[in-house]
Amino acid sequence: MEGKNKTNQPIKETENTANMKARNENIYKGTILILVIIIAVLTFMLITSRNALKDISTEKVVAEDLNQELKVELDSVLMEYNMVKMEYDSVLTTQDSIIQANAQEIERLIAQQSDYRRIRRQLNLLREITQNYVHEIDSLYTENRVLKAENVEMQEEIQRFTRETTALSESKEELESKVEVASALRAFQINATPIRLRGSNREEETDRARRTDLIKVCFTVAENPVATPGNKNVYVRIAEPNGNILRMGDDDRYSFISGEDTLQFTMKGEFNYTNLDTEVCLQWNNTSDYEDGMYLVSIFTDEFRLGESQFSLR
User: Fold this and answer.
1) Cα distances (Å, whole numbers) of residue 51 to 45, 48, 258, 307
2) Cα 225 to chain center, whole Å?
3) What per-residue confidence (pLDDT) applies to 127?
């Protein structure tokens, strides 16, 4: 019996050793599996991080390209404006500071890499203001020079056209076209001024949006001896920086016809035109909150667009 127990003892030790090896192998396999999983997770995180970094770099390059495009476009607008400014420097002096301030604001936004759409809106507004203003200045400068410096010669030319009308029936259409152009009304010295009301309703100019109580628009309708005299309706449109028109309402009472377009107006008035320089003033005091930025002012009668101006609030 004792000999039989001694025989069984080595067998049990062998079984214990085999079981221990199996457990160790399972532990090693589990450890290796965990390490493989950790390596896979770290590899995935590394690839994801690299892709994210690549996307950020790509977006940065795109943003830099867009900003460079905006800068080139801004330089082009300012170059065109400065070329006209050199030619008509004395006429543009009063508005140059407004245009330059708006350009500096756009340059600051580009340098700060602000929202592209915001910079694009500001740049489009600056281009529209400079183009309209330069066009209007050039037109007013030419027409005013003809009306004032060569007034006698112009009257003689009109009289000559009048005398020849009956004899030159074949050129009637051309003559009527020239008379129509000559009889057009134009405005100059257009001043749009934000006003702050102090004690006793004392008026004070301001450029602060939150201090603005009303907007006064004054201008002079130029002398034109061939224009039709009489009472004239005048419409003033004030466009906010976002392009919306300041107005009392959206129905037909606050709109007028200009050519083939129906336009909303901010203010409507009337003046008596006697073919001489006529001063007109209107004021808008129906808005309590104004946005910061550039405002575009356009003036019309029932027949003509008289001119444009602008002002800015901050």
Assistant:
1) 10, 5, 56, 55
2) 38
3) 77
Could you give the C-alpha distances from 122 to 128, 251, 298, in angstroms and in order? 10, 29, 19
Contact 249, 268 (CB under 8 A): no
Element (H, E) at 158: helix 151-164
| Rounded mean pLDDT, 106-114 | 76
By three-state DSSP, how is residue 222 classified? coil
Handedness of CA 249, 314, 111, 84 (dihedral sign): positive
Those residues whose C-beta lies under 8 Å from the C-beta of residue 158, and which sit 6 or more positions away, are 179, 182, 225, 226
Neighbours of 262 (CB within 10 A): 10
When pLDDT is averaged across residues 84-101 and rounded to a whole number, the result is 62
| 185-313 is classed CATH 2.60.40.10 | yes
Q: Whole-prediction pTM value?
A: 0.46
Q: How far apart are CA 138 and CA 123, in angstroms?
A: 22
DSSP conformation class of 193:
E
